[in-house]
Amino acid sequence: MERIYLDHAATTPMHPEVIETVMKQMSDTFGNPSSIHSFGRASRQIVDAARTSAAASIGADFNEIIFTSGGTEADNLAIVGTARAMKHRGRHVITSAVEHHAVLHTCEYLEKEGYDVTYLPVDEEGRIRLSDLASALREDTILVSIMYGNNEIGTIQPIAEIGELLKEHQAVFHTDAVQAYGMVSIDVKTEHIDLLSVSSHKINGPKGMGFLYAKEGLTLTPALLGGEQERKRRAGTENVPAIAGFGKAIELSMVSMEEKRERYLAFKEQLTRLLKEKQVEFSVNGSFERSLPHVINLSFPGTDVESLLVNLDLAGIAASSGSACTAGSIEPSHVLVAMFGKDSERLRNSIRFSFGITNTKEQIDEAGEALANIIARLTNK
């Protein structure tokens, strides 16, 4: 039985060229990038090359890229670092109800520290309303954190419009672009983004690596204290092999972005068309058009998410839900709750499928056939 991986929004397999790059650096380069001798300079060149690639990928400058241990650290540094650096100007933060927990839990932490956080509601596509954001803005608002594309439903937020709205306000604009990066074109200058978080393992790079874009002149209170790495913004000796692999993943991702977009959108259409042909009843959670190309979240009335996931896994198909299954109980997806309310049936019957570089048309057909058969069996149709 072929195993089919349709959970690339959770993590992606490392690209063979990335693996080769990481292995080469682990074998050939070991110097500390902060050392001034030839061994250190060799490592520094590798870090600088990756930083150059990262900056170019979003229209940023070289010194505006801070390497981190991943998207979670990038979100934490952006949110807590900004809140602490700007607390003399206010203690009000705005975010949305559908953010990744790396943002939501960080904002909850700030609330315990005495900050006031506004959680914006979303419509049934999972998008915030610009009017709600404008109404929520106050003189003491110091930070707005709205994700670029949602990890559960794929919905893309109106980032450029948010950036334009905040352009004349003191509030710093942060976006968690972990799921969107490498799938949509991002330009931090034209979109007026001040802080942007990225994770390597979402673009076929190594785990435990990411970056935070921080606009030149922005002050962040560092979370890690120690050496003067990353221009005193993130202490700790750089993970050179992982940074090298991340740099390679960025290069590959940027070159293939348009091809991937077209292929993944075709997969979405292929999967939904097949389900319709099989007369499977379903609804799309979020927007089919205004969403990330590789993510689709489907609701199947009359089914149960745990049964669906277990049966899919038995059929060799890896998918996921927005719910955390623990000890036989399901914690409803906070994203779907925000979109449809806590009593919606969709909280209990929705599955996320997310595509990646290893997938083929044949796999999508096979997965669609298996899914249709499972649903027919579970609903006795």
Topology (SSEs and partners):
Blueprint: E1 4-5, H1 16-28, H2 38-57, E2 65-68, H3 71-85, E3 92-96, H4 101-112, E4 116-120, H5 130-136, E5 141-145, H6 159-166, E6 172-176, E7 195-199, E8 210-214, H7 229-232, H8 240-277, E9 283-284, E10 295-299, H9 305-314, E11 317-318, E12 324-326, E13 329-331, H10 334-340, E14 350-354, H11 361-379
Parallel strand pairs: 1-11, 3-4, 3-5, 5-6, 6-7
Antiparallel strand pairs: 2-8, 7-8, 9-10, 10-14, 12-13
Helix pairs in contact: 1-8, 2-8, 3-4, 8-11, 9-11
Structure explained in plain terms:
Helices cover 40% and strands 15% of the residues. It has 381 residues and is an alpha/beta fold. The chain folds into two domains: 131 residues, Aspartate Aminotransferase, domain 1 (Alpha-Beta Complex); 237 residues, Aspartate Aminotransferase, domain 2 (3-Layer(aba) Sandwich). The longest helix has 38 residues. About 2% of the residues have low confidence. Its cofactor is pyridoxal 5'-phosphate.
